[in-house]
């Protein structure tokens, strides 16, 4: 699949920034919109965009509907009817639920959980909804377009008990929000496959980023490369799948 126009969220650093670096090596690309909470402070991204004017840093808070609307307007003013080939819902948070080993959830609170749902789940729901006309246009001109939801192995309901035993750390807010993101992937595939808009959920592996920490197993750049290779080989029947960065199915 020739990726011409793409939007990636959460590009200040981490996996999002690596996606931008890989995408701009693609000879077919025209515009990569790189969403950031505060583009001015994303120094590495700004430098990349100065070297390549087709990388466009944009202000995009996925938990803010006005920010989504402004980003949509800016993107559409630049791509017109060409459409969008790829939306990467990458932005996410994973903050401690107030769990203390041996004591349990000493500080579990509703606001903390809602924050995770707002950024990790409702952000992708609202952004994807806003950009569906552009994704459909992309699919018309380019045979297919892709919504890539960056999920996690923690989204798996069938493995939830295993993770408690392995890590003794529930990540409940995070797991709930990513499981719900998988639900979006599946629902979207039901309604949008007829328009050749493919949606998939991918666990990138445990990667070295501010979220993954320095002891993680894989580099973010390697994960970005692998995941984008996976995306370019997708076919419409892949829509709705939840998989790892090597394309192997994970248990929902
Ligand atoms: N690292 C891992 O081992 C791992 C494993 C499994 C899945 N993942 C998933 O991979 C994705 C990328 O993770 P990462 O490791 O690169 O995380 P990261 O280093 O913490 O980066 C997260 C990005 O999301 C942005 N972000 C946070 N809240 C936002 C909001 N409200 N609106 C827009 N952007 C927002 C952050 O920007 P600001 O800091 O400026 O807010 C940052 O650019 C996430 O969805 C994560 O859940 C990561």
TrEMBL record:
Keyword check for Metal-binding: no
Keywords per UniProt: NADP, Oxidoreductase
Gene3D superfamilies xrefs: NAD(P)-binding Rossmann-like Domain
CDD domains documented for this protein: carb_red_sniffer_like_SDR_c
GO terms assigned for molecular function: oxidoreductase activity
Pfam families attached to this UniProt entry: adh_short (PF00106)
One cellular-component annotation, GO: cytoplasm
InterPro entries recorded: Fungal_SecMetab_SDRs, NAD(P)-bd_dom_sf, SDR_fam
Keyword Oxidoreductase: yes
Record PANTHER family: NADB-LER2, SHORT-CHAIN DEHYDROGENASE/REDUCTASE
Family: Belongs to the short-chain dehydrogenases/reductases (SDR) family.
Protein's name in the database: Uncharacterized protein
Organism, as annotated: Acrobeloides nanus
